[in-house]
Design goal:
- By secondary structure, the chain is mainly α.
- Helix content is 81%, strand content 0%.
- The chain is rod-shaped, with a radius of gyration of 51 Å.
Length: 324
């Protein structure tokens, strides 16, 4: 029976270790899920920052090109206008001084300058249009890059979410399995404790039955001294019997602590039946026990005790006929 108890304790310890491992794995899965969510958020922030940077860069580049081309066009226009003005002044001077034969040549010179100015203006406008076209292509490429980045970020977020959900489900499954294993181990350990308690009670009853009913000098047996007959007993005997049943349901360590509380000699070398016998003879009231001890006794006796119950409710339940 000691081997069974030891095996039950080892099984309970392994179950606790499995439960701790499951809780640790669940916490690790949760941390990984949180890390995946954080990476997804950072990816969204990076995409948003890249979109803002690209938009600002494109806008700045377009504005710069527009300013440069506008400046070039204005410079060319100013230069040509200056040339036209000078040519016109020269032509007017020539016309005024030589209004005869020089008028035709002056007009041709003016026309030539105007033609050159128009040609240069047209070239400047063409360069401006080409720059605008290049800027539009750059904007389109930037939008395409942003779209690809957004798509990759969305895929990464979806994959991270799926992996996180799968990890959480696996952790919950492992935790549930660990809880079931721990529950089964505790149930087996409790059954082993109850079996040991039954064996201890049987040994105590055998020891009580082996005592002589009367001594040779005519003194009454302990049972008769307490007012108990072989076929029946008084109310005091019933209360003591119920008390022993409650005491027998407690672990040995709880019995030792209870004996110290009520000032009963309880050495560590005493067996549990002896402790039960001494405490029963002392008549330990249920009110002297702690709430934890009362809960333990009620659980071992198969009573429907709850953690939320008060100490007085536990005492009344243990005093009920069902617990006797």
């Amino acid at each position: 029976m000691t081997d069974l108890i030891r095996q039950a304790d080892e099984a309970a310890q392994r179950a606790n270790e499995a439960e701790s491992t499951a809780v640790r794995l669940a916490q690790q899965a949760k941390d990984e899920a949180d890390e995946a969510a954080r990476v997804a958020r950072e990816a969204d922030d990076a995409v948003r920052q890249a979109r803002d940077d690209a938009t600002g860069q494109v806008s700045a580049r377009v504005a710069q090109v527009e300013q440069e081309t506008a400046a070039e066009v204005a410079e060319v226009v100013r230069e040509q206008q200056e040339r036209v003005r000078k040519a016109r002044e020269t032509a007017n001077h020539r016309v005024d001084s030589v209004r005869g034969s020089e008028e035709e040549s002056a007009r041709k010179a003016v026309q030539k300058v105007e033609s050159e100015a128009a040609s240069r203006t047209k070239e400047a406008e063409d360069r401006a249009e080409q720059a605008q076209a290049r800027a539009a292509e750059a904007i389109e490429e930037a939008n395409a890059a942003l779209a690809r980045a957004q798509e990759l970020a969305n895929r990464a977020a979806i994959v991270a979410q799926e992996e996180a959900e799968q990890a959480i489900r696996e952790a919950e499954r492992l935790a549930g399995h660990a809880r079931q294993t721990a529950t089964a181990a505790r149930r087996h350990a409790r059954a082993a404790d109850q079996a040991k308690d039954r064996a201890d009670r049987a040994a105590a009853e055998i020891q009580d039955m082996s005592e002589p009913a009367t001594s040779s000098n005519g003194r009454r047996s302990p049972a008769r001294a307490n007012g108990v007959t072989r076929n029946g007993g008084s109310d005091r005997a019933q209360v003591r019997s119920a008390g022993r049943k409650v005491l027998s349901a407690l672990p040995k360590q709880d019995l030792i602590e209870l004996a110290r509380t009520v000032e009963v000699d309880a050495g560590t070398n005493l067996t549990k039946p002896v402790l039960v016998q001494r405490l029963g003879a002392k008549g330990v009231p249920l009110e002297a026990m702690t709430k934890r001890t009362l809960l333990t006794a009620g659980e071992h006796l198969g009573l429907e005790v709850r953690q939320a119950m008060t100490k007085q409710e536990l005492v009344e339940m243990l005093q009920s006929p069902r617990s006797r």
